Amino acid sequence: MIDNLRQEKDIDIAELTVIQTNPENFFCETASNNQFYLSIILFFCFLLGHVIVSIFAPPIISHHSQIYSNTAHNGNSTVDIDIKLSNLQNFHRFVGVNGSFYRSDKHLPSFDYPVTVSTRVNYLNNYSIEDFDSLLKKSYIIHFDQNSILSSSFPVLFHPINNFNSVQAKITIDADLSKIKDFNFCWIYGNPTGVTTSRIVRFIMSFLVFYFLMAFLYQINFESDKFIKISCIFVGFSAVFSVNPIAILLPESISAMITDSLMLSVFICSFRLFLFIQLDLIRTNKPQPTTFYLAGIVFLFSIYALIDVVAGFDRFHLINLLYTSLQTTLDSEKVLMCADFIYCVAVTVLNYFAFKQTDGQSHRRLIFLSIVTGVTVFATIFSHIFSQVFKEILDTIIPLNIFISFHTTSTAFIIFLMQGSTKEYQDIEDVPHDLDVDDQVGDFELLNEDDQMEAI
């Protein structure tokens, strides 16, 4: 009888040793349904806020149209038009004008329209002529689409801004003006406020990531899920340092531009590497990847980071230094588009198999990471592929700001939902037990032989 009780004691202790009240050590798994879904709603509210800011923020390239009525309707005619733009500053970087025509009847069929244009331009600083250009006559073929009253545009002038604050231009047009109702001249010039707004938004979001990261570090315990927690710390710090504050103060500094592009690319690469590995760990139900697998994935994402650095620097260089419109696709961006497409397909397929092959563990973590996958894939396709097709939005901060802010916000909420939710479990010796087996055995031995037989 005594041996049986001692065996039961050993079994009880063994069972108590493996019992855990909470196998998941992440807030997203232990939070109530209301807390979890409220976090998801708050996440989408942040994303919606970024979209609204991007839409209503100042553009990178400003456009200002001036329309003049046509007073000549007698077939082939020559008209002179005086246009002027004032209040220019050196930080506008360049000024240009594109011309187009409005026809009187939009129901006319499509046709090509020859026009000859000559221009004389004066560049003034406080009403004093600093420079002038006399542009020779140039012939263009403009096109009217069917059921459209506005023609395609033709260039009139383009000049870097250097110590002048207003432009006066006399434009002479030779064409058949019998069907032309109005002349449209669109001024274009750089607007540094748009880029500064984007960097300020990134700077503010880095503080949000930093706040969640400090809360994450305060509760961290490396006794379980060590690799996942270290990965969260790494991607969190890369997000915090993804913006160079000097680039906000000195937007035309080449060194600030290079570091800003480099830091942003490191963050994007770190985030995508983190997301890819986390989905694969959930799929395989492993605490960490093998060394060989990790080395291969890091190598592939390092190649992507190099492509992103070059493309990002070329785009920032185009925005900050060159005197041109942004509606162009650079060679490095074409390579980046291919790399982005491959990543989007790969991470979407991996997400599918993570849902298909998971054994039910980390269910909420998989749901949120799937939401993050969808959000960031959308941001990538919209900002790096869709915007290159519909080039008009390249003159705004919409593609750049949505891409960066969606990734930064996703990082902040990943860290928030994957923070530790409970203290680590104490050793079994520290937990009081209601049953003291040794005491019961000792009391049993004190019984006399008759009492022992009765007990048996």
UniProtKB/TrEMBL annotation:
Range of residues in the leader sequence: none
The keyword Amino-acid biosynthesis belongs to this UniProt entry's keyword annotation: no
Name under which the protein is recorded: Transmembrane protein
Top-level division of the source organism's lineage: Eukaryota
Organism: Tritrichomonas foetus
Keywords: Membrane, Transmembrane, Transmembrane helix
One function term, GO molecular function aspect: toxic substance binding
Residue stretches spanning the membrane: 36-57, 200-218, 230-250, 262-279, 291-313, 333-354, 366-386, 398-418
